[in-house]
Amino acid sequence: MTAERIESLLAEGIRTLAGGPAAAGASGLDAQLLLAAALAVPRAQLHSHPEARATTAQAAGYRQLLARRAAGEPLAYLTGRREFWSLELAVTPAVLIPRPETELLVERALALGPAEARAADLGTGSGAVALALARERPRWRLLATDVSAPALAVARANAAALGAGNVEFRQGSWFEPLAGERFELLLSNPPYVAADDPVLEEPGLRREPRLALTPGGDALAHLRILARGATAHLTPGGWLLLEHGATQGAAVRGELEAAGLAHVRSHRDLAGHERMTEGQR
Question: What is the DSSP string of 180-222?
Fold first, then answer.
């Protein structure tokens, strides 16, 4: 087979993805990102040199990626990359893919935290939240924890790649790795989808780590643990910030108030859904 032109491969990719689980509006972008990954070039180069040609091996690799994407495999797992808070993060199937709505946790932490603070990101996954805060607040000392050793390996690699020297990583479930320490900020995007929710069977979510998506039959189980245990690990005046499901705001506010936290309030994401709730010790 002779070398194939970039523009022809892109057109083929759009046709392939148009009929798959990927949204039609995103199929063109997905095709570009997959081809850039297969060629190991920046996406802009596809537009500046559409007449360039891919080798037979590169074209074959691209078609394999297209087939997997058309079957519903998340784009981030195929490219191995995801942008969050303008940081390029490595992601693998060991971690939840960072979502734009989780940037609300970062925004609120930056708004609430003092110039110098200790902050803990519980259930860090890829390290997205902790590393975004580390970039914005180099004088903060951050602790990032996760029960999953493979997830922590991804987070540590991201920290090394970004040169984030003010983040420490520990393995363990929720408050266990904190060893009696106290923080000005506790943040978490815990699993909050009930195990029987049909959304978990959607093509993309079905491939993400179940451990990071659902706590089991009680969707609020982990949110409740975090709310009830926070005061023991917050300094006076410290804040707990929790991401949660779009319909869980009232329930989470109730949990924070029951735990004795003050100034409890929820914030909405760009879609208008109550996405995270905060409370102060």
Answer: T--EEEEEE----SBTT-GGGGSTTGGGS-HHHH--BS-TTHH
In 10 A of CB 112, how many CB atoms? 18
Closest C-alpha among 177, 156, 180, 178 to residue 167: 156
H/E run at residue 239: strand 234-243
Sign of the alpha-carbon dihedral angle for 277, 263, 180, 219: negative
pLDDT tens digits, one per residue of 201-257: 887 788 899 999 999 999 999 999 999 999 999 999 999 999 999 999 999 999 999
Give the helix/strand (H/E) hosting 21. Answer: none
Q: To which CATH superfamily is domain 81-280 assigned?
A: Vaccinia Virus protein VP39 (3.40.50.150)
Q: What is the pTM of this model?
A: 0.89
The C-alpha atoms of residue 129 and residue 238 are separated, in whole angstroms, by 18
CA–CA separation, 231 vs 189, rounded Å? 18
* Neighbouring C-beta atoms of residue 57, cutoff 10 Å: 9
Q: What is the β-pairing status of strands 87-90 and 81-84?
A: antiparallel
Q: CATH number of the domain at 4-72, out of 1.10.260, 1.20.58, 1.10.357, 1.10.8?
A: 1.10.8
Q: What are 105-112's contacts with CB under 8 Å, separation 24+?
A: 105/129, 105/187, 105/189, 105/241, 105/243, 105/276, 106/132, 106/133, 106/136, 108/241, 108/267, 108/276, 108/278, 109/133, 109/185, 109/187, 109/239, 109/241, 110/136, 110/137, 112/185, 112/239, 112/241, 112/278
Could you tell me which of 263, 137, 231, 132 has the C-alpha nearest to residue 189?
A: 132
Q: Which residues are within 8 A (CB) of 222 and not within 5 positions of it... i.e. 6 or more apart?
A: 174, 190, 191, 192, 215
